[in-house]
Description:
This protein is an alpha/beta fold and 519 residues long. The protein has helices at residues 34-41, 56-65, 69-72, 88-94, 132-141, 157-163, 194-214, 238-241, 288-318, 352-355, 382-389, 404-408, 472-488, 495-518; strands at residues 8-15, 44-46, 49-50, 98-103, 117-120, 148-153, 170-171, 182-186, 221-230, 234-236, 275-276, 279-280, 325-331, 356-357, 359-362, 371-373, 377-378, 417-424, 428-436, 440-445, 451-454. The protein has a single domain, classed as Alkaline Phosphatase, subunit A.
Amino acid sequence: MGKKHPPDIVYILEDHQSFYAHGEQIGSIPIHKPNFQQVASEGIEFTRAYTCIPLCGPARRTMLTGLYPHNHKEIKNETHHSYDKETYFERLTAQGYDLYYFGKWHTGPGTAHQFGCEGFSYPRFGNPYITDEYKEYLKENNLPPIEVEVFYSFHPDHLNEQYGIHIGEKYNPIFPVNHENICGLMTTPKESHEVYFFAYMVIKNLRKIAQERKKGNYKPFHLRLDFYSPHQPYYVTKEFLDLYPSRKILMSPSFSENLDTKPDSYKVELNPPMGDNWQLTIPNRVSWRTFQEVLAFHYAQQTMADEAAGMVIDAIRELGLEDNMLLMWMSDHGDGLGCHGGHFDKEAYMPEELLRTPLAIKFPGVIKPGQKSTRLVSNIDYGPTILDAAGTKFTEIVDGISLFPLFKNPNAKWRDELMSQTYGNFKPHFGRALITDSGFKYIYNENDMDELYDLNDDPYELKNLIYNEDYNDILKDLKIQLEKLRKKTGDIYSLAWVRGRHLREPKQKKKKKEKSKVL
């Protein structure tokens, strides 16, 4: 028998999706994600997977490097630090892998192409609907450009005018950045949506790989499929929206929370009419009835992404590529839609809705099917896991660890706690969350109220126990654990450091603009 080839590695990443998307909210309408659940049933689903930071750019850089944001220094979106830390792309290339990347980048300056990846990748956040590749896709498939009828918009009036967004009217998403805060019912076929566009390109690429292998030309490959969805804007067809009768979506347990026992970071909301002068209006000006309808759009877009990813997985199976493949499916961070007073997006607060993420991994012959794990894992672990599958590792010490011990033995020795962090988004903030295997969660918020929750008793974090004297000993122990973890990972930073980086941002934006012209 010949030597077994190195495994192929496929990585499906959804953007901005919390674990509540899997129907974990008590009594809520279930979210239809049959393809994700199929992957989970054929491998392992981690039900306590966390992001190291609830923000796109920093989380994506972490997934490349295995490092916390304080170590790779991309602490918020568009800070655009150079890539002075090794990424798993370099290590895979050294192992002889071909690299392919299709979808959203938003990891810092440049694109995936500068790391040797072929495929689709544009600088910064971007908008797939205005690219030449999308136009060619429409032409090849005889499709019209995506168009939607606008149902809701959560922009100030002047931005609605600037973008050309009018409730009840048609809208073509041609703005340079694909993140309008709107819900739109598609008037064009579902295939005009970005998730099907990316799936189409990936499947074409997989077919080329399969054809080369039939000719005897074998090289292992790593392929990433990075959807923009289910991040807003929510563009869906009636077929998917009808799956979610909005009145059956139960109220989030924290929607009517008055936030009296929460730090100020929970009270920041940029989007009107939920927010006014960056402050969340309490009680919320937007009714739960409206949130129900917005959530229906959000859930429908998740199901569309699931269907598109399922098309890719079906192609992998049909092409005979699945037997020697590590397949990982996850999200970069969660979503605050409707939680803790009724937010539209995310900010610097760190509830479970923003930190916990879905994660399913399939690896035939390595992972026994049908497993569910409650062990604490983080996206700091994804890079080390990919490299472990490829028979290599980072050349320097990283913060994450490979998940392979848990693939082989669910009861393997593992971490008892992990850390998530925030530096703010539009407003500077410094916070650290310690999540423990026992179910306690402590959040340090510099110059603000700290938080302590017992997630076993209070999964929606409605009871902040920080001033409850009955928990003094537990709190003392958690503070010691957090300081040990910060020291271990070289986390010596503070709010003053964060503010300094915010003040320096304009100069770095100028450098980014100059560099993007080359790319």
